[in-house]
Amino acid sequence: MIKDAYQRTGREALPVGRELLLIGGRRIAAVSGKYFDTLDPSTERVIAQVAEGDAADIDAAVASARKAFEGEWSRMRGADRGHLLLRLAELIRQNQDSLVALESLDSGKPVSAIRRQDLPAVLDTLTYYAGWADKINGQVIPARTDALTYTVLEPVGVVGAIIPWNFPLMIGMWKIAPALACGCTVVLKPAELTPLTALKIGELALEAGFPAGVLNVVPGYGKTAGAALVDHPDVDKITFTGSPAVGRQILRGAAGNLKRVTLELGGKSANIIFPDADLDAAAKAAASGIFFNSGQVCSAGSRILVHESIHEEIVERLVARAAAVRTGNPCEPSTSMGPLVSAAQMRRVLDYIDIGKREGARIATGGARVGDAGYFVAPTVFTEVRHPMRISQEEIFGPVA
Question: With 90 as the cut, is the pLDDT of residue 6 above it?
């Protein structure tokens, strides 16, 4: 796939190929015939053109998922579903080098970080829910002696899963594995910025033996494919990770058929450092909390509340740690921070940096783009921040503390 992620990422420019949707066990073009480009954020080069799913393709994917659900899948023994999940985990393990390279190429994440966190989390999630598949039990309720009262847990049905671009593999599996373990079928809508590993996982699921239609993958834009999935009357549940603004839209759309909804949204998480802390450990954790994944984490420690008696020392330590962060080619093992995912995200982060300066905060380090190719922003630390400032209130989603 994508020439095995540019030959495990020498990142040489190759002729741009096309990637198709995965619906009903087959790779097919979008009904509209449209494609969109997906880019390497570290070079701004086009990696591939991806079929652009919209409402017509969502209709086909939901119909395929419904057919699979009402067929053998929801009636399959839990143990057998568990075996398939374990088989998928094994295939991911066998293909891990390709998946790591593809994830890095598509998202800009350093390969070292994917190997350390994302890929192990994918495997742990699959094996965990594989173990649950045959242990989803109801209970007998001793309400009265002359009646048998009991509960049965049944699969919800067709699950629409909408995943973000910051952890495509890991968050994708957080949604896929529990749904499949319970006997549900899935229509997965990956972020248009990072669709490639989702398509690869769909192919591996078929290779593992999952019936056609159990896992469908429809890349596309939120306003078309995502909205169609949310509004679809034959989707029983939506699970979404992303922004609060989109989460509100999903709640409104899900009201149409009272579909169940799970939302994981953004935040403005704070680290608090007291004078009796181990300051070196605290500074290390605080730096990791905001510079990991270029700050593109919903639980990033983007606000650091420090007792005034240790303020200057913590600032010095954070500045030193920011200076030690190595930005650059995500495929180099020594790279600790890659680019932001897109030009739009880079502009958003740089705009927030400008807002912070206008509001009166002081930049202790960073605060600018790095280089002129790729969406790199320097690790940035603001001081003299007052709580009412926008940079203290709003999620920046970049390497800005």
Answer: no
